[in-house]
Amino acid sequence: MEQRRFHVAVVGATGAVGQQMVQTLENRNFPVGKLTLLSSERSAGKKMRFRGEEIEVQAAKPESFEGVDIALFSAGGSVSKALAPEAVKRGAIVIDNTSAFRMEENVPLVVPEVNENDLTWHNGIIANPNCSTIQMVVALEPIRQAFGLKKVIVSTYQAVSGAGAQAIEELKAQSKAVLNGEPVTPEILPVKSDRKHYQIAFNAIPQIDKFQENGFTFEEMKMINETKKIMHMPELQVAATCVRIPVISGHSESVYIEIEKDGVSADDIKAVLKDAPGVILQDDPSEQVYPMPVDCVGKYDVFVGRIRKDLDHDRAFHLWVVSDNLLKGAAWNSVQIAESLIKLGIVK
Amino acid sequence: MEQRRFHVAVVGATGAVGQQMVQTLENRNFPVGKLTLLSSERSAGKKMRFRGEEIEVQAAKPESFEGVDIALFSAGGSVSKALAPEAVKRGAIVIDNTSAFRMEENVPLVVPEVNENDLTWHNGIIANPNCSTIQMVVALEPIRQAFGLKKVIVSTYQAVSGAGAQAIEELKAQSKAVLNGEPVTPEILPVKSDRKHYQIAFNAIPQIDKFQENGFTFEEMKMINETKKIMHMPELQVAATCVRIPVISGHSESVYIEIEKDGVSADDIKAVLKDAPGVILQDDPSEQVYPMPVDCVGKYDVFVGRIRKDLDHDRAFHLWVVSDNLLKGAAWNSVQIAESLIKLGIVK
Q: Which among A179, A239, A293 is the nearest to B204, CB-wise?
């Protein structure tokens, strides 16, 4: 029997995440029958390669989604808000990588290792969580299942690629300038649309996305709210401090957790994570083995190490969680959702 | 009346911290009558400038300390262990920047803003705390005094200069290589004397100093144990995750605290820190004002921002603490201790 093939659209195909989406569809040998690449007017006409063939990128408009089965969106929240409903109207299932619909009650927010079953109640749009949230919940869910979970405090070490291709170029150009003793003129980071911009080369910027009234940034609130929604734990205590560091790709997280069960050891946590889906345990201090961003780039997994019990609190542990923010944090999680939709028979 | 002037020795004068000690003595107009610069045999013969004069660096030996009033040590733990007692024997007060004596019961571990009075019971050697500890306790002590302090969880973002001048050169050389698409051969970081070395350029390494049996690194245990000793709080709950990032100088820290008092607001914390000694409050999210390492280099203060109340816990707060690790974290805190010794009449 011939395998069913799907008409897939990628919206924002020329961006840092969009390029990874196209590459991931190819790498995973996703059953693509037809691939439609969409972008802004500005990028339309560019050519991208998929399975050895050149595909011309078209300007996205409502009619672009005629006949599309699955539409992967990663072109910013306003594009998603305008075009995702148009895609759904034309029969596509949308997997949206922006924050536009994530907290809407009728939109499932999905990390397949954690809550794949939430796909069953979708209403056309499925939201892909924030990059820093995804890798954290992949590491926390197996611990929750085994030992319960009460509290999470995370400090992030986030790569510039999370802010797009321009931010990568800015880090490289600034790094060269600083090394040559030349002045830098920040224009993109921390937030392109915010008023002030700061040097990222050889610096750490404790702002990702804009500030809310409560002193937290939107990035921090995404980690807090999305974690509770994905894990179905409105009562979970979550706090986040999100920091941009001069890394090209690969987000790292220092995570403190309090679990429900008494008498659990660090080895118990390691045993659970060793067999957890999507997780690679890299934890051997005696051999200086722990995850680092440069090692995780290009890989789909979430890498966890530095697992140790808190010295004061029997039910508290510390972890170090690293993953490629463009892959598991974005493109791969989106394609993985599409694979789950096929596996569960939701898209036919 | 003419001011009393002191014979000061700097041991490890040619190192990253030693150079800053000499510069800080000059900048502070410290009452130096004579300055003796000491180093290993390898660096002996080098010349350094102090107040416009050239001083030749000599190889450190027990006799080097004859007539010295105050000896600032920053040449590694083994040098301190061998020579600090020799300096004391010859009448000098030693201010030691290594970890050699920090946790010894008869050695005060001092951050002047926090526990200056501990200088009164010294026995010849005074220990300067670990860089990442100093800046944190300067920020926490005024909060403790006002509202009590129960628990601290810190994740650090530490600069390479804390690992010495060679580590700075390694970061610069690796950064150039990566930008040019050339391979890198790590030789210094994370820990020169450890077996494996990893790329620091465009990376984050969750190891500073070697690992202990309990899974924490020595750097993390320094933050835990030294904080309790400096603050006279053996019961304080402290946990640390220490991470090296590609920043040249300036350590940053994401700090979660739980205080004792109920009903305290983030504004209350800010009000306390605004007037705290050694602290500069940089906290205005509406204007994107927060501390960053590139802004703190060359300054003596500890910069605090991103102060906000935890969303789940009435007595919990989050802070972002940044300081120049070579100055307040090392050279300036040592010179400041020397100034306190004079002010308190301990050295005459």
A: A293
Best B225, B241, B256, B309 member to test A by mutation, with max A CBs in 10 Å, is B241
Q: Which two tokens stand for residue A106?
A: 């009728």
DSSP assigned state of A128 = P
B199 touches chain A (CB under 8 A): yes
Helices A16-27 and A332-343, packing angle to 10 deg: 40
Tokens encoding A162:
């999370």
Q: How far apart are CA A202 and CA A186, in angstroms?
A: 13
Nearest CA distance, B23 vs chain A (angstrom): 22
- A230 min Cα distance to partner chain B (Å): 18
Asked if residue A1 is part of any domain, the answer here is no
Clarify whether A251 is annotated catalytic.
yes
CATH of the domain at B207: 3.30.360.10
Task: Establish if B348 belongs to a structural domain.
Answer: no
Q: In whole angstroms, what is the distance from residue A256 CA to residue A187 CA?
A: 34
Q: Domain tally for chain A?
A: 2
Which residue in A155, A214, A308 is closest to B254 by CB distance? A155
Same domain, A282 and A159: yes
DSSP SS3 for B136? helix
Q: Are A162 and A251 in contact (CB under 8 A)?
A: yes
DSSP letter at A284 equals: B
Q: pLDDT 10s digit of each residue in chain B, 348 long?
A: 568 999 999 999 999 999 999 999 999 999 999 999 999 999 999 999 999 999 999 999 999 999 999 999 999 999 999 999 999 999 999 999 999 999 999 999 999 999 999 999 999 999 999 999 999 999 999 999 999 999 999 999 999 999 999 999 999 999 999 999 999 999 999 999 999 999 999 999 999 999 999 999 999 999 999 999 999 999 999 999 999 999 999 999 999 999 999 999 999 999 999 999 999 999 999 999 999 999 999 999 999 999 999 999 999 999 999 999 999 999 999 999 999 999 999 998
- Chain A, residues 144-173, CB within 8 A of chain B, namely 151, 153, 155, 157, 171-172
Do the Cβ atoms of A154 and A254 come closer than 8 Å? yes
Do B30 and B91 have their domain in common?
yes
B161 in Cβ contact with B271 (< 8 Å) = no
Substitution target from A245, A265, A322 for chain B, most B beta carbons within 10 A: A245
Q: Is residue A67 part of a domain?
A: yes
